[in-house]
Amino acid sequence: MIGRIAGRLDYRGADHVLIDVRGVGYIVYVSDRTMAGLPGPGGAVALYTDLQVREDLLQLYGFPTLVEKEWHRLLTSVQGVGAKASTAILGTLGAEGVSRAIALGDWAAVKAAPGIGPKLAQRVVLELKDKAPAVMAMGGGLPAATGDAQAEVLEDNPAPPPAAPAVQSSASVQADALSALGNLGYGPGEAAGAVAEAAGAAPGADTPALIRAALKLLAPKG
């Protein structure tokens, strides 16, 4: 299985790109959100990939982070959610938005994706809610699929993580807050819901601020 592709972007279609990897062109389907973050033709690009196998078709789907790829894998495990529906959900919400919506049980946010009806959105939230904490926790230590101008295809295993950035990403902050709440004895589900709600209210919060906000949400009412 092809797990990551890095090369030169040759062509941008409506829902896919053509990536040249040492003279071989790979068609990779991406969400609108991912497409917007890619360079123009001739630019270096790298994406984590998932190969969809059908009886009469093989298609590669690309994702900028391993967290987004994992959400794609989980979304497509839900009955009625195919690769295109998963791409629509991720394109509308992004990986962090999907984490937040599912942790909070917010099926209306999932329903906002094109082609997703209320029953399917409710099924997604119901089936994946218990898995949201584990995916949110992944966000702290996983690299984005950044690549250089040298084209490469890595199968199964992604490249080693790059040096940690000076500023934590939102996913990393949420993962650290989730870990801290777990260390304080809160269950994964309630911790994930509180972190997701706090992150939605203050998207730019650092880890200590997010922990404080989540603890306020978890504090007994009354």
UniProtKB/TrEMBL annotation:
The keyword Transmembrane helix does not apply. Pfam families: HHH_5, RuvA_C, RuvA_N. The keyword Cytoplasm applies. Keywords: ATP-binding, Cytoplasm, DNA damage, DNA recombination, DNA repair, DNA-binding, Helicase, Hydrolase, Nucleotide-binding. Transmembrane segments: none annotated. Its main location: cytoplasm. Residues 1-64 are annotated as: Domain I. It comes from the Bacteria. Residues 168-222 are annotated as: Domain III. Residues 1-62 form the DNA helicase Holliday junction RuvA type domain. GO terms for biological process: DNA recombination; DNA repair. Belongs to the RuvA family. Has three domains with a flexible linker between the domains II and III and assumes an 'L' shape. Domain III is highly mobile and contacts RuvB. Homotetramer. Forms an RuvA(8)-RuvB(12)-Holliday junction (HJ) complex. HJ DNA is sandwiched between 2 RuvA tetramers; dsDNA enters through RuvA and exits via RuvB. An RuvB hexamer assembles on each DNA strand where it exits the tetramer. Each RuvB hexamer is contacted by two RuvA subunits (via domain III) on 2 adjacent RuvB subunits; this complex drives branch migration. In the full resolvosome a probable DNA-RuvA(4)-RuvB(12)-RuvC(2) complex forms which resolves the HJ. This is Holliday junction branch migration complex subunit RuvA. It comes from Actibacterium naphthalenivorans.
